[in-house]
Write a structure and sequence with these properties.
469 residues, alpha/beta, 8-stranded mixed sheet, 6-stranded parallel sheet, 14 strands
């Protein structure tokens, strides 16, 4: 079995950066180089003050311990490929915006470019590992490209090693994973490559948590896991609508059903909707796969998970308008939180983007505060969400604030869009004093003590909680 001494990771984003930083920390005998063509991103990973390009609790400490020892960040992609025994392909696979499969299929352009770069550059045999989330049987395409373009003395074994990280807890997830999944062809060479990667993980992961399966099972398992998790969120959000109509409390309902050991309590927290880079993208990928296999009913089933998520966001923004006397034109709305969830700076598919776009269309004035998301990211996301509206027009309607208190000043309503812990401890008395009256709070994350806020004087609306007694 070949022993892995040098690893190259192509892609220094949310998956490749943290994953390979932890591998370097846990495997000091292995040299790990993370490469990316984005010079600014690599400069941030190498910054003297450790102002890293992504925010993830615990990540800075990992990078501080390993960088310069056996962890390196570089734009020299070709050298990284040439020197490595094992190459992680961890590039972006967004949903296609045009062409065949637009709106559903994964865009594998970056995966193909990385694969062709490996074939053109490698002068010795390599283990190539899919780390990006990809459609089932992508490895087959990668192998075809590698075999057709490889040099005479270079052969490639392809593995699937999907990540199951949750942003906000990614470092803890990497330190103590529920499982590490490695898929390989069931050939002698495939199993040898699988064993080599397994040996890397065994430096800190118990062997019984490393699952080795077939290549296609591994690729599908990643899509299936995210689809099942998103399904739970959409299920509890669907129930939250019933709760609001009947006077039931979704927190009580979720707690009750979560006590059933067959169901369990995780991913049963109602909210304004799920976001992030994975859930929607992977479900749409699964829908497209099902349709391409002529499994129409299967495709319709999974599509409904996304439909329910979009409905939940629309329903929440409409509730804000309805409660504010059926119009928010010219009214100031404070939106607390812009990241798709707490403890990350990631805004991809964030529910806040949809809410703010809806408020803009109703001609409201919007103040935004988020403790981690940079202003330029907020403007870019809002611009993309309303491509027909000039950025200057958006900036006349929307303001970015440096604190929650500033965002709430002179506002008619506060909308909690992200469950940042600091929003629990805001001086709500001071917020109330600075707002126009009546002052409304819309809790889209089941975060605040509604009764306490009502005692201050707020009119409080909580997602999944009806007004009937």
């Amino acid at each position: 079995m070949p022993r892995v001494q040098q690893i190259c990771c192509i892609g220094a984003g949310y998956v490749g950066g943290p994953t390979c930083a932890v591998i370097a920390l846990k495997c000091p005998h292995i040299r790990v180089t993370i490469v990316d063509l984005n010079q600014a991103r690599i400069d941030a990973w190498n910054s003297p003050d450790f102002k890293l390009p992504i925010y993830e609790p615990g990540l800075e400490d990992v990078v501080r311990q390993a960088r310069g020892r056996n962890l390196f960040f570089s734009t020299d992609v070709d050298k990284g490929i040439r020197d490595a025994d094992l190459i992680f392909v961890s590039v972006n696979t967004p949903t296609k915006k045009s062409g065949v499969g637009a709106g559903f299929a994964a865009d594998l352009n970056y995966v193909e470019l990385a694969t062709r770069r490996i074939a053109a550059t490698a002068t010795s045999s390599k283990i190539v590992v899919e780390k990006s989330t990809v459609p089932c049987r992508t490895a087959e395409s990668m192998r075809t490209i590698l075999d057709a373009n490889s040099k005479p003395n270079a052969r490639f074994d392809i593995l699937s090693n999907p990540e199951f990280l949750a942003e906000g807890t990614a470092i803890d997830d990497l330190f103590a994973p529920d499982r590490v999944l490695i898929g390989s062809l069931q050939t002698h060479e495939g199993k040898e490559a699988c064993a080599a990667l397994s040996e890397v993980y065994q430096n800190w992961v118990p062997k019984e948590r490393i699952l080795t399966v077939g290549l296609w099972s591994s690729e599908l398992s990643k899509l299936a896991a995210n689809a099942m998790l998103a399904q739970r969120i959409s299920s509890v959000n669907a129930l939250s609508a019933i709760c609001e109509a009947t006077g039931a409390n979704i927190a009580e309902v979720a707690h009750s059903i979560g006590q059933d050991s067959r169901i369990g309590p995780k991913f049963l927290r109602a909210s304004v909707g799920f976001g992030g880079s994975c859930f929607q993208k992977d479900i749409l990928n699964l829908v497209y796969l099902s349709e391409s296999l002529n499994l129409k009913e299967v495709a319709e089933y999974w599509k409904q998970v996304v439909t329910m998520n979009e409905y939940q966001k629309r329903r929440f923004s409409k509730r804000v308008v309805d409660t504010l006397f059926n119009t928010i034109t010219g009214k100031r709305i404070a939106v607390l939180g812009f990241a798709f969830k707490a403890d990350t700076g990631d805004t991809r598919e964030s529910a806040a983007i949809t809410l703010i776009r809806d408020f803009q269309q109703e001609r409201a004035l919007v103040n935004i505060y988020d403790p981690q998301v940079e202003s330029n990211q907020i403007w870019a996301d809002l611009n993309e969400a309303s491509p027909d509206v000039p950025l200057e027009t958006i900036q006349r309607q929307v303001s970015i604030c440096s604190s929650a208190l500033e965002a709430c000043r002179n506002a008619e309503a506060v909308v909690i869009a992200t469950e940042w812990a600091e929003f629990k401890t805001i001086d709500w008395q001071a917020v109330y004093a600075g707002m126009n009256k009546p002052a409304f709070v819309f809790d889209g994350r089941l975060l605040v003590d509604a009764d306490k806020l009502r005692s201050i004087g707020f009119k409080v609306t909580v997602i999944g909680r009806g007004e009937r007694l």
